[in-house]
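can u do me a favor
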C-alpha cells in the first residue's frame, strides 16, 4: 500500500457502501498505518486491512471474493500491466480496476470481459461504478474469462511457443 494506489480515495465511497460490500486489503507499505487510522476514525466497518500473507494463502482467500481490486492513481501512469492483475487472472478471478486513461487494463478488461475498469477518479462517478458492479448477479463468467485470458496470454508454455514461431 502506497501512494501509487491512493487507496484513501476509496474510503468515502466504501463508507457509503456499508452493508452492500466489503473491501479486504492485504499488505504492507508506507500508507498502511495511515489508511488503518482513517478507517477507524471514520468508522468504515466494511474495509478490513490485513497483514501480508503468502501467495498460496492469498490464492485460497481470493476464491472467497467476488472480484480482485487493482488501483493506480492517475499520476502513476506506468506503461505496464500491474502484476496483481496477472495474479488475479492466473487464479481465475476477475478484476475491478481503477486506473489512469492510458493504462492497457481499460481496454483488456472490457474487451476480454474479465471484470470492470474505469479511469474516472471522481468520487461521485466511482460510487456509481461500484453500485453498477454490485447490481450484477453472475460474476463467475468473468472469472472464467479471466482464467481463459491467463491461459492464452500468461502461460509460459504458450508464450514460449509464440516466441519460437517468430
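np, heres the sequence
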Amino acid at each position: 500500500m502506497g501512494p501509487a494506489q491512493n487507496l484513501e480515495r476509496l474510503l468515502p465511497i466504501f463508507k457509503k457502501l456499508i452493508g452492500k460490500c466489503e473491501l479486504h486489503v492485504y499488505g504492507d507499505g508506507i500508507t498502511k498505518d495511515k489508511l488503518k487510522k482513517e478507517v477507524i476514525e471514520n468508522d468504515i466497518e466494511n474495509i478490513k486491512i490485513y497483514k501480508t500473507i503468502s501467495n498460496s494463502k492469498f490464492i485460497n482467500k481470493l476464491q472467497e471474493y467476488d472480484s480482485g481490486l487493482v488501483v493506480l492513481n492517475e499520476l502513476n501512469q506506468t506503461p505496464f500491466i500491474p502484476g496483481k492483475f496477472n495474479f488475479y487472472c492466473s487464479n481465475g478471478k476477475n478484476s475491478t480496476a481503477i486506473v489512469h486513461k492510458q493504462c492497457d487494463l481499460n481496454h483488456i478488461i472490457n474487451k476480454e470481459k474479465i471484470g470492470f475498469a474505469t479511469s474516472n477518479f471522481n468520487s461521485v462517478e466511482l460510487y456509481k461504478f461500484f453500485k453498477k458492479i454490485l447490481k450484477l448477479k453472475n460474476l463467475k463468467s468473468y472469472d472464467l474469462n479471466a482464467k481463459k485470458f491467463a491461459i492464452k496470454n500468461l502461460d509460459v508454455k504458450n508464450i514460449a511457443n509464440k516466441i519460437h514461431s517468430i
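Strands lie at 23-26, 47-50, 68-71, 95-98, 115-118. hope that helps!!
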